[in-house]
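Researcher: Batch entry, complex prediction.
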Amino acid sequence: MPSFDRLRSNKLIVFTAACYVAAALYDTSIVGESASMCWVFVREMIEILPPVIIIATLIDVWVPHQAIIRLLGSSSGVKGIVASIAMGSVFAGPIYAAFPLTQSLMRKGASLTNIVIILSAWAVTKVPMLVVESKFLGIDFMLSRYLLTVPMLVIIGLTVSRLVSERAVRTHLEGISDEDVIRLAERLPGHDCGACGYSSCQEYARAISVHGEDPTLCRFVDGSVTVGA
Amino acid sequence: MNVHVILLIAAAVGALAISFKKDSAKTWEGLKVARSRFGSIAGDILAVLALVSLFLTIVPPNVISSLLGSENVALSGLAGATIGTVTIMPAFVAFPLSASLIAKGAHLVAVAAFITTLTMVGFATAPIEREYFGTRFTIIRNVVSFLAALVIAGGMVVLYAIL
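Model: Structure tokens for the complex:
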């Protein structure tokens, strides 16, 4: 049932739409108010996400594995930790923007500990936000929060990498490799005819790669759509 | 637009220019990957942002500030951490909001916990994180970060007194 699978792979969007319909039935003014708040968030996303994804992709294309392994790999030690804190702190932006970048770094050989440190530093120790924080909450507040947070970043990184197997995360990364989606999409005709139940060939390629959709649904391709063929 | 956003965009454009100079075919390939990455995640992120906006609209700010300003410091710290967990907001919105919460009587510990979990722990962004790193990683990273935020908030009481 491809259409059901589409619904499932977009369940977040479906759920949100349902919430908005429910809210509108209750009181339409809620929808207008939250839409105008949402616009502030969306503007930030439009400004930050594309450049971060471009940088992540260029790292994929150009930076050699050895360089990342040396800087952030599992034997990078204290130097790797310091580099991770520094790297995470330079960026300011919502944490969801950090996922594509850290994922690229991990594919290139950064250790799980350092990935978690970069993610956390990205979230809470933002150098560009130092001034804003002390302006609104006072320099004492800002300083004590930073002094406490920086050592906690290391503790968080070490704890998470003890509790989660690095191999399991790497297997997951291989499973949803974007390159695979692209390669699969290239095997498809690109008519976006919708006969397979997906709105575009790109969507169908993604469903095969990520959700293990049946690869024989395309009527223009004889047999299965595979990366190797 | 903030300075850091301009710097970020400049860095991406600069890196792209260098990449094009070195190998334009490879760069086009890369841009195709970037577009698919953006397309595959943008819908989910928009859904999350819309959901959080709805939540913040329905829960009025004075409910939040009364939760963060309760007599019991530990309890208000926990409330701050929890509210920060279920919502996300840009830092440039969060800091002024925190200042107004303090003005309304919210406890400092609660605000520190709120700011830390707001950005580091994401109930709302968990579905996106799961796509990237898997379920187990997402659950454990968020739980560990939540506990760390409580430690940070607790430490604020001590440090703030000394400074």
